[in-house]
Structures are given as C-alpha cells and as structure tokens.
UniProtKB/TrEMBL annotation:
GO biological process, one term: lipopolysaccharide biosynthetic process
Signal peptide: none
Molecular-function annotations in GO: glycosyltransferase activity
Coiled-coil regions listed in the entry: none
Keyword Transferase: yes
Residue span, Glycosyl transferase family domain: 85-202
The protein's name in its UniProt record: Glycosyl transferase, group 1 family protein
One matching Pfam family: Glycos_transf_1
Key words, A-Z: Transferase
InterPro entries in the record: Glyco_trans_1
Length: 203
C-alpha cells in the first residue's frame, strides 16, 4: 500500500479513528443536524467538513473548516427521454418525511396515474399500515417496490414529472438531480435543499 494523502470520512463515527493518524481528514455530512453529531464535530476542529447543501450548512453548528459541495452524478448513466408517458413518479423510501401519501393524493387530484418506487423500512411500518396501504390500492396507483438502476432510469424517463413532497429539511435530494438528468421536471415542496436544486419554471 502506498502513501495516503487524505482520509475521506462519510460516517461521523469514524472521526475518532482518523484522528489517530497524522493525515488530513475530510468529513462529508450526509444527515440533518443532531446534537450528538454536532458535539462530536466540535471536538475535531482540525478536520475539513463538507456540507452537501447550503441549507445543511446553515443548520449545522459553526465549524471552523466547512465548505459546500453538492452531490454529482455521471450524466451518461441517466440519458434523457423526449417522449414521456402519461404518469407522474415518486422515488424514495415510503416514509412519512418523504411524503408518498401526499404524492398519491396530488396525482389523484390532478387525475393522472402515479408510479411509486421504493421500499418500506421497518421503522415506517406503522405509517405504511395506518396511512399508506389503502392509498396504494387506489385506481391509477402503481407501487413498483424497490427498483434497480435500470428500472429507476426507465421510471424517471417515462414520467411527466417527479413529485417530491418532502416534510423535512432534507440535506440533499439525490432523486431530484437524477430526474433532471433524465429530462424530467421536478415538482417539490420548498424545504431543505430544494430551492438550491429546483429552479422555478425551468427545472
């Protein structure tokens, strides 16, 4: 193994181990602020932190070395489509903070079919059973379950729009830029990093 120039950390729990080495450390933040993590970061002022959105940075404690770098994707992996089908899409965890129930209701009000892709995590079982299950059985609602990359791209390419009715300050919605690369407009609530990614009337 050759010399190591830099250590890139994607989990806060690795910070104490990186501190044992005399190597510059970059820490990418992937989560909303929690007091425990913020207190941990303050113990390592020599680390270089990267927020994935300005919204995330503004919500975090004041750190001496922090920059903002948005997520990026390979455009070749998301070829655009010029002929969408007649449906809108929802892509993500079927969790209350992601708003799949709002997406279904919006599609029903607009009288347009909706296709949803994503799984239910065990922590969201109550939400699924109490609020989402009956909505998924409504006419013109199709739940695809968890999809692979090829299926995801096909879903986004065929959609007239991606619905992102989030209920939390999401640090960065990767599905937003995935949809944009496929040429699919995004309809989203103005929360978290959404205003940094979605340009009204353009994307």
């Amino acid at each position: 193994m050759g010399e190591v120039d830099i250590i890139h950390i994607n989990s806060p729990y690795a910070l104490p181990f990186a501190n044992m080495l005399d190597i510059p450390t970059v820490v990418t933040l992937h989560h909303p602020r929690t007091q425990d993590f913020s207190s941990l970061y303050l113990q390592y002022p020599e680390a270089n932190f990267v927020a994935i959105s300005h919204s995330q940075r503004q919500g975090e404690v004041s750190l001496p070395n922090i920059s903002v770098i948005h997520h990026g994707l390979d455009p070749n992996a998301y070829p655009p489509s010029e002929r969408p089908d007649h449906y809108v899409a929802f892509l993500g965890r079927l969790a209350p903070e992601k708003g799949p129930d709002s997406a279904i209701r919006a599609a029903q009000l607009a009288n347009i079919p909706i296709q949803l892709a994503g799984s239910v995590h065990w922590v969201d079982n109550d939400f699924y059973n109490d609020q989402l299950r009956t909505l998924l059985l409504k006419p013109n609602v199709q739940w695809l379950g968890e999809v692979d990359h090829v299926q995801k791209v096909a879903l986004l390419q065929g959609a007239q729009a991606l619905l992102v009715p989030i209920r939390w300050e999401e640090p960065f919605g990767l599905v937003i830029i995935e949809a944009m690369l496929c040429g699919t407009p995004v309809i989203a609530f103005r929360r978290g990093s959404v205003p940094e990614l979605v340009e009204e009337g353009i994307t």
